[in-house]
Structure formats: structure tokens, C-alpha cells
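FORM 12-B: Structure-to-Sequence Request
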């Protein structure tokens, strides 16, 4: 139980895979973990499609945070109009850049943390102290957002933030 935070990237592909070089059907399999010590077991199909024209969008989990309440508060205020009801909210690339830059600024000027990215309390939201976990959350946020913003995979994606608590 606690604050889980997800940034998902939606990539529209329009049901036409010709430009991606994918033809025919697709099968996505997962190796089952055996109950005896977690060794790989047999493969099990988790998705089989014989008509790729029915696929119009692929969704990637671009980033995940756990109890980074200062980052969550930023998303609530800047992307969810101050409403925190675990709803999904659109996040522009510009907003991702803004959050990354803000995290960098706070990491460089630690005395500005309370003013620029204050911790926020909530139902199992984690600590409201500005401690090593706070700084680690900001560093990982910068790393994740830089990776997203630099990766060609995410160039034409729409981003959505959602939390669960």
C-alpha cells in the first residue's frame, strides 16, 4: 500500500505496420517461472494476434516512482489542475522538460527544495522529510526524464501520468 506513480507513453501506430517492417501475425510469449526455485519454465502465449490491423496504439511504461510525493505533487498541480483523485492526466513533452529542469535546479540549490518542490503528505505517501530519499527521488526523476526525452522511441508519443494510493 502506498503511493505508486506511473508515466505511460502512448504511441499511435494506426493499424499499419508496413512502415515498421512487421508483417503477418505476432505472438508475445512469457516464460513461466516454475514454483521450484524460480527457474524458467515453459513459454506461455500472453498475446496472439493474426490481424495486426486491429492494433492502433502501443503503450509503454516510461517511468515509475514509489512514494516520491514531491514529484507527485508537481504532477497534481501542473497536469491535474490541483485535483488528486488517481485520475489519468495528459503530460506534454514541455511539462516533462519543465519537471526535469526543476529537479535539476533543486539538486543544484538544495536550499530551494521547500519552495520549489516541497514534500507533500497523503495516505501512505511516504516521508515528508527532506532527507536522502527525497534527493534520491529527484536524481532518479532527472535520469528517467532525460532518458525519455532523449530516446527516439518516445519522439511521437503522448504521455499520461496516473497515481495509485
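FORM 12-B RESPONSE
SEQUENCE OUT:
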Amino acid at each position: 500500500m502506498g503511493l505508486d506513480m506511473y508515466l505511460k507513453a502512448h504511441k499511435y501506430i494506426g493499424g499499419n505496420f508496413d512502415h515498421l517492417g512487421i508483417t503477418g501475425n505476432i505472438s508475445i510469449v512469457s516464460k513461466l517461472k516454475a514454483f521450484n526455485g524460480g527457474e524458467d519454465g515453459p513459454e506461455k502465449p500472453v498475446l496472439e494476434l493474426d490481424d495486426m490491423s486491429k492494433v492502433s496504439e502501443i503503450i509503454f511504461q516510461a517511468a515509475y516512482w514509489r512514494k516520491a510525493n514531491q514529484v507527485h505533487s508537481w504532477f497534481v498541480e501542473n497536469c491535474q489542475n490541483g485535483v488528486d483523485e488517481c485520475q489519468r492526466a495528459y503530460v506534454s513533452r514541455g511539462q516533462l522538460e519543465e519537471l526535469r529542469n526543476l529537479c535539476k535546479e533543486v539538486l543544484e540549490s538544495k536550499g530551494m527544495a521547500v519552495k520549489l518542490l516541497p514534500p507533500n503528505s497523503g495516505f501512505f505517501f511516504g516521508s515528508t522529510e527532506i532527507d536522502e530519499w527525497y534527493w534520491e527521488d529527484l536524481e532518479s526523476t532527472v535520469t528517467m526524464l532525460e532518458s525519455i526525452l532523449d530516446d527516439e522511441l518516445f519522439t511521437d508519443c503522448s504521455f499520461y501520468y496516473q497515481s495509485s494510493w
